[in-house]
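User: quick one, fold this
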Amino acid sequence: MKKKIILASASPRRKELLAMTGIEFICKPSQVEEKITKSEPQEVVEELSVQKAKDIMSRELSDCIVIGSDTVVSCGGKILGKPVDVQHAEKMLAGLAGRAHQVYTGVTILIKQGNSLIEKVFHECTTVYVYPMTEIEIKNYVQTGEPMDKAGGYGIQTAFGMKYIQKIEGDYYNVVGLPVSRLYQELKLLKVLEEK
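Assistant:
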């Protein structure tokens, strides 16, 4: 019998990326209060992805697969989340301009089968190089409102990415919010995808 696949996320970008793979799934955003006990970005995203996946799995009675995910931007050893206000967004972007930073996405796959629970946790890291930006360019971009719901204060898949991203090393989709190719391969290895 085909198992229900649940994406534990409210992110429209993650939903769109997973849908592009052809995998059938439903979205159930996690409402769990995130608790960070780690300090390294790769450990933080893995920890948060586990919390989200376990929150949704705890409410599921039938056999299913839950995918949890979390993304952070790390620059100069400091983890950047989503901006809290306009000034914070401007400061964040000024810190990213003209240098390289890393984007980490942690992914947790939980598979419930009867009384057993299989857990697979991994992360991907992509290095992003940003061109120098003027103060006016930063202010104009922040005024669009776009940075406010994005880790690091920018979207690579938007006009910002087209104008200010010099290059990337690693998975582009990881920067958007979900390393879908790695996720797809992991699901294949776990034998939960039906052959098409």
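User: anything notable?
Assistant: The first strand starts at residue 4 and ends at 7.
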